[in-house]
Design brief:
globular; single chain; mainly alpha; transmembrane helix; 356 residues
């Protein structure tokens, strides 16, 4: 009963945070716009007015699901990795290389091959900061942030000087992917590609991994109380390395799906911060794999609505970004209150560890 009440309170807190952020956003729109009705209609209704707009929301949602899931795995393991952006780039690179330079395959073989290549690329790149943390106690926040720069600049170098398509007309990108590796549309008339289905499957797989397997139990136990986990015989170092590697694999898969489903090629600057947006998606979902689907949809809906608002009224899409920033602030403030509550409980028990 207590657990159920805690879940209800959690949901209520999230809904209040969303409501407060939207309320402030609406106040700002009313204050700055000469056509507020058109702006609000575009922001909240236009994403549902056509198959194209709704399909665009689903397409925007896809990479956010992967980076959100990547953050869920590390956060539940107590590892504060910020490296989803770099892992996304490295997974996109390895997946794109398989999609571009391996011709003559059936789609039933080529697409799984691209997926495996991206999982390996992102997973190995994520494993490195995990190894540094587990063995040398390197701060994972700093190392993963630095690895983001390495990945983005390395991919940029390759696209500009080594692997650049000679027919790209000056743009830094790879040649287009083979037709057998491209993810097609799932519904005629909608732009949504098959990466949407892969994202749903990934959410279900991560849910079973985290809540129905021994590995997931170890990941969550280390995240809740590493000392307890160590006393219980769990190899915490192995769990830390594993969590960031799995996180990297998920982010890397998101990169390959974005390349083969959305762009058809790997181009410089394709991500626009998808790895960092995954942190917001994870926070909104309260670290739950299935919740990531809902929060990614809401986040993508705001982005598409913001674009429609900018096109149809005098309000810039930056208002949608302000709403997203407010969401982060409100959700983060809830986390701070929970942390302060835990500290109070811990001090009341004479400093004994308190399970989160």
């Amino acid at each position: 009963m207590k657990q159920r009440n805690a879940i209800y309170l959690d949901l209520l807190g999230i809904l209040l945070a969303i409501g407060a952020a939207l309320f402030i956003g609406i106040i700002v729109i009313l204050a700055i716009s000469n056509e507020p009705v058109a702006a609000l209609r575009s922001l909240f209704i236009d994403p549902f007015t056509s198959l194209f707009s709704f399909g665009s929301v689903l397409n925007r949602m896809v990479p956010l699901v992967f980076t959100g899931l990547a953050i869920v795995v590390v956060f539940q393991s107590g590892v504060f990795s910020m490296g989803a952006e770099g892992q996304l780039y490295m997974g996109a690179l390895t997946g794109a290389l398989a999609a571009v330079y391996i011709p003559g395959l059936s789609p039933w073989i080529h697409i799984p091959l691209v997926i495996i290549a991206s999982i390996i690329g992102g997973g190995l790149f994520g494993f490195i900061p995990g190894f540094l943390k587990a063995v040398f106690k390197a701060d994972e926040i700093v190392s993963t942030l630095m690895f983001n720069f390495i990945a983005v600049l390395f991919v940029s170098f390759l696209l500009n000087y080594v692997l650049k398509d000679p027919n790209s007309g000056g743009f830094a990108r790879l040649p287009y992917v083979q037709g057998s590796a491209k993810l097609g549309q799932i519904i005629p008339g909608m732009p949504t590609h098959a990466g949407f289905l892969i994202a749903i499957v990934a959410s279900i797989v991560v849910y079973f991994l985290m809540y129905k397997t021994k590995m997931g139990y170890e990941l969550r136990t280390v995240g809740k109380n590493p000392l307890f986990a160590e006393y219980g015989g769990i190899a915490t170092k192995k769990v830390i390395m594993l969590s960031i590697a799995i996180s990297g694999a998920l982010a890397g898969l998101g990169g390959a799906v974005e390349v083969t489903g959305m762009h058809g090629t790997l181009k410089e600057g394709f991500s626009v911060g998808l790895g960092f947006d995954g942190i917001i998606v994870c926070l909104l979902a309260r670290n739950h794999p299935i919740g990531v689907l809902l929060s990614a949809f809401f986040y993508a809906y705001l982005q598409v609505g913001g674009q429609a608002m900018q096109a149809n009224s005098d309000v810039p899409r930056d208002i949608a970004i302000i709403i997203q920033a407010l969401l982060v602030l409100f959700i983060s403030s809830q986390a701070i209150f929970a942390y302060l509550k835990q500290r109070k409980l811990r001090s009341a028990q004479g400093g004994a560890p308190v399970a989160k």
